[in-house]
Write a sequence for this structure.
């Protein structure tokens, strides 16, 4: 009897695993992209609400066969962008080790880059090109790291190559977290920089009242007669043109 009970529990457990894994496997298929994106969007909207994020989106995101490039302030950028229009992200390899976020990133098909690894970088470019050709939207943070939200760092052009190879447009996306309480251009809790851990940052966010995330999707840049340096310069300039007036207004108010 004990052996039979153990066997029944094992069968039940395996059934649960299959019941979970099969839908996840199906959602990962290209032909399930609309359903997958809707599931992802609502999941991240729920996460944003739990974190006290109010998202304000402007402009129209290009949803397919596009390389989106955004300034990088925090891991919150991924939450916010997926809550508006899900895509495949390019992230540093360390993200895969983060609790929950790392698991979710892998399931979403995030492409991980090992810094300083030339072979990894070349392989990533090939995969990004393939994803764009099959109609996916891919999101890249060309600064390569998070910033303090006050300035936009240099945009590195190497990972713009997939857009050129796939003849896909590049859409600049400006992200900011204005502080409604003080009028500052950036909420003090928004940047994820330095030696701060993910858990400590989440804890700080949960202790805040709320935070606004402003996302502006700018007109896509054609790539027909472009090159990597010009695309990097143009996209950074477009994002800076959105963020600079808000910074100046906050500075004048202060």
């Amino acid at each position: 009897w004990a052996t039979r009970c153990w066997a029944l529990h094992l069968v039940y457990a395996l059934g649960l695993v299959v019941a979970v894994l099969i839908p996840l496997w199906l959602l990962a298929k290209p032909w399930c992209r609309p359903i997958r994106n809707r599931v992802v969007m609502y999941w991240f909207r729920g996460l944003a609400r739990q974190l006290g994020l109010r998202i304000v989106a402007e402009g129209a995101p290009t949803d397919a066969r596009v390389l989106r490039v955004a300034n990088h302030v925090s891991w919150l950028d991924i939450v916010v962008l997926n809550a508006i229009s899900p895509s495949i992200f390019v992230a540093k390899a360390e993200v895969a080790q983060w609790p929950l976020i790392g698991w979710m990133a892998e399931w979403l098909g995030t492409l991980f880059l090992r810094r300083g690894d030339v072979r990894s970088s070349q392989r990533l470019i090939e995969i990004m090109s393939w994803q764009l050709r099959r109609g996916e939207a891919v999101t890249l943070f060309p600064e390569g790291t998070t910033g303090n939200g006050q300035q936009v760092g240099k945009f590195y052009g190497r990972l713009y190559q997939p857009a050129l190879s796939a003849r896909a447009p590049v859409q600049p996306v400006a992200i900011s977290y204005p502080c409604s309480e003080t009028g500052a251009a950036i909420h003090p809790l928004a940047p994820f920089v330095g030696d701060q851990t993910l858990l400590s940052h989440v804890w700080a966010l949960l202790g805040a009242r709320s935070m606004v995330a402003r996302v502006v999707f700018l007109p896509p840049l054609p790539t027909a007669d472009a090159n990597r340096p010009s695309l990097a310069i143009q996209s950074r300039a477009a994002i800076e043109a959105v963020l600079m007036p808000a910074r100046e207004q906050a500075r004048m108010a202060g």
